[in-house]
User: Fold this.
Amino acid sequence: MAKHTKTNAMRMLDRAKIEYDTKEYVYEENNLSGTHIALENDLPIDQLFKTILLKGNKTGYLVVCLEANREIDLKKIAKLSNNKSVDLVPVKDLEKITGYIRGGCSPIGMKKSFPTFATPSILNSANIYISAGQRGLQIIINPKDLVSFCHIELGDITLD
Assistant:
């Protein structure tokens, strides 16, 4: 593997002494979907998690980690996060709020800590792939370590 610069997410995991590995991948600027990345780079789609930033009407910003091939149910995440409604944060605001750009947003190392949620299925595999905080680089991590480190609340948040 080529040598790459450590991202903020990787440095935070190092400081916490949490084991992880990395995988570089090829991405296309015009197609940053997790499904496309998984297919083009032979990554297991049910182990590749995307990071989504939302804003609740009561609690403010929140983060969701979701399998790349699944869709979020905004009503379910609103209820789980104690909001009446939640909306996706516009892509143009993502970097200002999190420090990350679309296609390189990690649940680890955002500018501020936000309540974070995931489906219980995040625990179905020994390892999962999440963004390392830059396009073209994934962190491979034990999901139990990620859930613990990011204080992730698990619940039913996907469309059926």
